[in-house]
Fold:
Amino acid sequence: MASDQGNNQSVERAVAVLAVFQNGHPELRVSDVVRITGLGTSTTSRLLATLESLDYVERDAVSGLYRLGTAPITLGGVAVNHHPVHREARQLAQELAARLGLGANVAIRHGTALFYLLNFEGRLAPRSTVLTGQRKPLHATGLGKCLLLGLAPQRRRELLPEDALPGYTQATLTSHAALDAELEAVARRGYATEVEELAHGRSCVAAPIRDRSGDIVAAISISGPLSTVALDRREEELSRAAVEAADSVSVGLGYVGPRAAPPPARTGDARGHGPGAGPGNGPGPGNGNGNGQGHPREPERSRP
Structure:
């Protein structure tokens, strides 16, 4: 048992060292890693040396600074390539970005944040960094609003308490009352918009992606500079493109459309047809009107 605990602790420490590099720290000294993780200098040096031998980090020969190596890239590529949403959406998103000249992004919900599975940038919406693998807030993004749409209001409040809705700009929705109203509008029109809610000068339109069960499992967005996306002029065009793309991915995941409402109960004749006659939505003897709910049949009225 003690050996297992020691091994687990070693794994946790190694992951903690790797996690340092994903928080905006591309290159670090050993002392930087010690300061951020709180680990001892000798432990940190030993972990970095082991991670370097496995290609998880690499050390610059001149500066002596450590950065992430190639092994995490390999793992990340394998992970996204095996994700069903990524497989269905990749080619379509790439074509969407090329056709519109804007960004095309696909994300899933991971805990309290959205997680980018992929992104492509068109010629009118260049970025200096890759979004894939990054996390962003749910309440301040078009993608996040689509993902929150799949949760009941109470579940949204449990996931994101009111004090977990920070404002990033003056346009950010920072209360559940405002978020509920916005999500009701998203549900009615079938897509979400984001105008400078996370960052100034950026906007997008997004649509939810569903799986075979009808649950919202991902979202796709079309994004770019505020002046290029220009939702005041292009909202209908871009929202249609986003919804059509989302529908295509959903179909690829097995979604066949909203579940049909059950047929209305039939009046039935006075004789009935035995137990569970008609479409029958529940157990119990039928009542001759096809609802199979087990309610007693009214007696026949005598004819004059």
Observations:
- The beta strands are 57-59, 66-68, 103-110, 113-120, 135-137, 192-195, 202-210, 216-225.
